[in-house]
Specification:
This protein folds into two domains: about 140 residues, Fructose-1,6-Bisphosphatase, subunit A, domain 1 (Fructose-1,6-Bisphosphatase, Chain A, domain 1), CATH 3.30.540.10; about 120 residues, 3-Layer(aba) Sandwich (D-Maltodextrin-Binding Protein, domain 2), CATH 3.40.190.80. Helix content is about 35%, strand content about 30%. The strands form four sheets. An eight-stranded mixed sheet has the order 4-3-5-6-7-8-9-10, with helices on both faces. Helix 1 runs antiparallel to helix 2 and helix 4 packs across helix 7. The chain is globular.
Length: about 280
Amino acid sequence: MTGFASESALAIRLAVEASKLIREAAETGFECIRKGSDDLVTSADLAVDALLSAGIAAQFPEDGLLTEESGWTAGSSDRVWIIDPLDGTRAFARGEPGTCVHLALHCDGALQLGVVADPMGGRVAWALRGEGAWESDEDGRAIMPLRVSRGRISSPRLVTSLSMSAARRDALVSACGWIAGPRVRGAGYKMLTICRGEGDVYFSEHPLHVWDTAAPLMIAWEAGASASELSGAEITFPLTSGWRHDGGLVVTAGLEHAPTVARLEEAWSAVQAGR
């Protein structure tokens, strides 16, 4: 690792510590807390948020922090850590697949590194700008590169969230002429599915926050995937206010991105019109 070696090492270590804390909470119990009218946070989210924030502040006190649970904390540098302590909270609360830990570093106008840990799978993935994407077990063994297929795919597998009903997913798949892929919770988990070759197109029809996307998109991009909003617009990362991607998200692997997004946008419009 070069350039951001110490930052990457810290992020991987903290993600592994967070994974162990999440598994412990799953085994011993946790408190569920309603956050707003239609959102959920658990005591595990808050504990992991504290762990990650304190760990970064101790080593890089000048850096800013943006986390799902603590919001925006300005730093004296132009560097910002983007953190989702427990992506897929509903999956965690229900004992379903989809829980991940996200850490990303944004500076010099771009993402520089991303780390996504899969606590229940005992795996951690990471990427540095220009250096590729990798995955290993939590002990740093069995390291393997993450690289999406560059071959032509005639029948892409569409990965969607459980927030999209199976009926709507099936209608969308039919309209595109594709194949139904996994329906799981957690943006990070779905993007790892793409990077691991278990799906070819990930579509989020609803807005996402930057902490949902920054770390897994860094990994997906370095693994060779492409991403944009459903309109085809470039993904940007508003860090001091808003913190959202309002145009949905499309991640593709092994496909021409622009024609795939155009096909998906047309099909999704037809599905919505038919309701």
